Amino acid sequence: QPRTGIGIIDRMVQRDPATGLPCVHTSSLKGAIKQHADLHGLDADTQKLLFGSDAGVNKAGGGGDTRQGQLAVLPAKLLFHPAQGEKQPYFLVSCPSVLNEWARELELLGARDELPGHIRRVAGAEPGSMTGLVAGDTGRDGGTVQTKNCPDAVKLSFDAVAELLGEGFAVFTDAEFIELTDDFNLPVVARNSLDDGQSQNLWYEQLVPRCSVFWTALLPLRQNLKGVDELTGTVTGKLCQVGANASVGMGQVEFKSF
Q1: Which of 73, 125, 168, 210 could form a disulfide with 129 if both were Cys (CB 3.0 to 4.6 A apart)?
Q2: Whole-angstrom distance, CA of residue 198 vs CA of residue 176
Q3: What are the sequence ranges of the domains in the chain?
Q4: Whole-model pTM?
């Protein structure tokens, strides 16, 4: 985000206007995916079909046609956030509101498998329910919710979501999740601009911690759109730069297809 000039944090993370939770807006995400695909060999015609014609080319040279891309990219919404643990270095946390919205949007997008049902059952579990973690952990900040084994009735659903994530997780209350991701708890780092070895500008930048999990959707705007599988193969399972500050190791994400 641009510098705010308000408070002590100059550059804030992007946030969903409805929920206030961290997100990656579509314009940032689409540009990052397109750049990654270009760097990894997706041909120019497929890029133009999926993402539209390059406005810069049309402006500069007048060549090529202005064409809308046939692939819609949804904003990336936060699903799981890492909490520092007392009995383990960290553990992933989500909350009922986030999980229920995820299930609802998957259904709207046409999901026909059992995943939305599993997600809803996980969302309805008692706060602190978890799978694949050490029980009895409230986090290093002394939260009010303690991790505990999920009930047998929903263990199948917890395990299904954990398999998708590739690791265990816990479900905390909405209030705990909001607090975990607010401006007082997200990490802030100091950045310095040097000119000939002299400090010229010091600013503070807010970050989403590593191990956070977001979800997005790539939506073809017409049936049997060519190039979608090629694009998915290009980004899945590889590191992709989303956002700035690549030279200092920020913004590296891994995409997983489901």
Answers
A1: 125
A2: 42
A3: 1-75+211-258, 80-181
A4: 0.88
Other beta carbons less than 10 A from residue 112's beta carbon:
8
Q: How far apart are CA 224 and CA 236, in angstroms?
A: 20
Q: Which residue has the higher pLDDT, 144 or 102?
A: 102
What is the number of other CB atoms lying within 10 angstroms of the CB of residue 234? 21
The DSSP result for the chain, as a single string, is: --B--SSS-SBPPPB-TTT--BEE-HHHHHHHHHHHHHHTT--HHHHHHHHB--HHHHHHT--S---B-SEEEPPEEEEEEEEE-SSSSEEEEE-HHHHHHHHHHHHHTT--SSHHHHHHHHHTSPTTEEESS-TT--TTTT-S---EEPPGGGHHHHHHHHHHHTS-EEE--HHHHHHHTSTTTS-EEEEEEEETTEEEEEEEEE-PPTT-EEE--EEESSTT-TTHHHHHHHHBTSEEE-SS-GGGT-SEEEB---
- Per residue in 140-150, pLDDT (tens digit) is 776 667 899 99
Residue carrying the six token digits 């993370």? 13
